[in-house]
User: Which sequence fits this backbone?
């Protein structure tokens, strides 16, 4: 269905003559996808002919640099005026934040003066706050208005609001005192005052709260939009659930990158420069090199054991690798469970008991498997059996211990108010390496009677 | 704000006497959170007194077993009737799917007969399809109706619809031919037929499409809801963006679990049994043990080199660990970029060039660092300098190669229509181990003139 749609749009836009009536049905996103592939003159002609709200919606999907080029350098000024007037304040703020101050000025001069104030107010909120994504184009009414009055008001201003299905009720000071929906207004008796059918107990979010918190409230409560209030409980904007879908994906991307010891990129991979990719990866890699010195120290301490039974070296990657893998698994499961609030930090004891059991089962399975491999490698004589025993016992111990390290570290981090995601796979692997070697050589020295 | 809210609700529900007027303002989610902590009799009393839609909304947040216990075993039958009538079909379907067939029958006998058919139709759609999450309680009108007629219709049925802000237009056969919003209906001239102001080009999703595709469309197009159609383009339901927020989080959780070589859990960590956790982790761990045999084989092949310069063993964890870490980073970045469609499979050459550069920078940094460590460990004599040289050169080579392996594998997998996420951190680490050892011992044998 989607491919057909895209093809139809491409054919439409590549037709000899662009016709306004064909363009009216276009979706902004489709325009944004096709636009870059059109010839420069055709791009301009298309944006001029499109309804301004569609053109604005399409531009919102482009890079800030491309938006700037169209708005300030390439489009005729009357088109730019119309498009900027149709653009949502949130999109305008996103654009301005990505521009150089001089470019910001150039854009702001083209924005309708009435919107400039809203835009400036929004830009003052910190990046990542609930307020930084909200819209200021919502519907606010007074509690004593009748349902019919609200509908008349809506017919007057409804064209410009972005959140149209919720109606927020404020008092004289702008304090949020209730919420209702366009549905309830339509279903109410025309003469009934809003106060009689609104919900007076409103779930809202503070403007400075993290946008992740806002996303969580929207998800838990199944709301379509969430009002944003300042410290005095005054309504300052509304956050739509569609604005938060992006947040969920961005947060997931951040968590995934942290899980591989990458400092989260501030942009997408495709836009990140070589230098910024280097910079966000090298720090953890260097720290892990230093942590790896513990592993070197363990081997050095047991070098006489190793010299006596050189075949012990064969199993180093197998044993410490398996510990690292099991630890990565449990750390990853735990970090995600904490992030989605499936498991609370206070429930560590339950999780610990579970992982003791899971670790033991995994350890016994892998231990049996690797004992066989040890016997196979060491030969069927007594040395072979001893090697098999050492490798098998070590595997059980390493998997159980690494599994518990992986499970415990995220809890410890969250206990100390640190980000549990720091317990990334590479960090757990590195810790499991040193621990695993210590276990391996202790058991080997003991069972072979060396050291 | 949230904590205050929760406390207020707890105080309200623990008050001596529950009063209906206090309960009317409660949010279903808040009730669901507090409910399990109440005494059994109080739970029942609360659910009886609550408005049925709030009680239904609260129950939706509970486990299927708990919902069943309340609905069939604990609540009086008139409360159950009212709650089931108020419950959304989607929630009812979720509940029924999680129950034993005999329990399903017990619940279905209590559902209003008019809803049973809808529920059965929804249950026929495959798990994970767009249709499996949709609601059938939407607003459908005919193109020739006037705006005023739509509003009168809305006043009649609006109480029962779940998606209230979009109005879908269907023809006699039920085919979806247009869409408009309650806003546009209110803003239109009362006499104007819907055909004159609806959007005739509707973005929709096939009922059998993956719910992830539906989530992507909702996100890309910034829609509040997406109509779901069958193969004949007939409207069968509507998917709200709030239903899809859960999808985004579940998909992210799956990707994160795959990234640690865990077969995605079919439930949350806290609900997963020890056995199911074992089962979803042991497969990959065992495969990786077998893959690790390559590493053992490499060390065995170079055992004479190792015997001659035993201190080479000290650096095994450091070198292969760093390769694995760098490879995990690039694999993770690439898998996520492919999953979010930031990078297309066809763009592998650009990504490859980028990773050659990033890998070289990382390799040189870590190489310099580890050469120093090598000299330090080997002493300041000639042997020490040689060891430092071997370790430094090896580190550069390993990091560059492992980085490229990590980056390439996800592309190769997607090329062969396999899930790129299979290139998990543990798999990349294991491959990097064997490759790294081969590089290490080749360079060592060459520079020390052994083997």
Assistant:
């Amino acid at each position: 269905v989607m491919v057909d749609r895209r093809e139809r749009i491409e054919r439409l836009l590549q037709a000899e003559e662009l016709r306004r009536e064909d363009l009216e049905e276009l979706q902004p996103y489709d325009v944004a996808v096709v636009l870059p592939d059109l010839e420069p003159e055709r791009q301009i002609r298309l944006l001029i002919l499109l309804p301004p709200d569609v053109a604005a919606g399409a531009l919102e999907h482009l890079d800030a640099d491309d938006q700037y080029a169209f708005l300030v350098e390439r489009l005729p000024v009357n088109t730019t005026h119309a498009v900027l007037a149709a653009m949502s304040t949130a999109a305008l703020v996103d654009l301005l934040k990505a521009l150089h101050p001089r470019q910001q000025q150039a854009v702001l001069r083209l924005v309708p003066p009435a919107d400039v104030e809203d835009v400036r107010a929004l830009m003052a909120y910190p990046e990542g706050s609930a307020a930084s994504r909200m819209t200021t184009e919502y519907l606010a009414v007074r509690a004593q208005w009748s349902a019919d009055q609200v509908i008349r008001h809506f017919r007057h201003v409804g064209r410009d609001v972005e959140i149209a299905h919720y109606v927020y009720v404020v008092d004289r000071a702008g304090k949020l005192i209730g919420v209702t929906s366009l549905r309830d207004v339509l279903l109410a008796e025309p003469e009934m005052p809003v106060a009689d059918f609104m919900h007076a107990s409103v779930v809202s979010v503070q403007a400075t709260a993290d946008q992740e918190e806002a996303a969580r409230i929207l998800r838990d409560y199944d709301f379509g939009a969430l009002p944003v209030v300042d410290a005095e409980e005054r309504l300052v904007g509304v956050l739509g659930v569609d604005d938060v879908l992006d947040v969920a994906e961005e947060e997931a991307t951040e968590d995934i990158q942290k899980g591989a010891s990458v400092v989260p990129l501030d942009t997408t991979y495709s836009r990140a420069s070589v230098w910024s990719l280097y910079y966000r990866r090298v720090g953890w890699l260097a720290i892990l090199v230093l942590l790896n010195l513990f592993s070197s120290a363990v081997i050095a301490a047991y070098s006489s054991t190793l010299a006596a039974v050189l075949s012990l070296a064969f199993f180093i990657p197998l044993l410490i690798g398996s510990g690292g893998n099991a630890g990565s698994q449990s750390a990853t499961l735990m970090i995600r469970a904490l992030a989605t609030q499936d498991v609370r930090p206070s429930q560590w004891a339950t999780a610990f008991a579970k992982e003791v059991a899971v670790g033991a089962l995994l350890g016994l399975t892998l231990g049996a498997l690797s004992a066989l491999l040890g016997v196979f490698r060491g030969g069927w004589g007594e040395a072979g059996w001893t090697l098999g025993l050492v490798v098998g016992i070590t595997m059980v111990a390493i998997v159980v211990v690494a599994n518990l390290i992986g499970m415990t570290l995220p809890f410890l981090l969250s206990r100390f108010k640190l980000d549990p995601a720091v317990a990334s796979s590479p960090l757990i692997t590195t810790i499991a390496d040193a621990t695993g070697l210590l276990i391996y050589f202790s058991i080997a020295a003991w069972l072979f009677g060396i050291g």
In short: Chain A touches chain B through 128 residues (CB under 8 Å). Chain A has 22 helices and six strands.
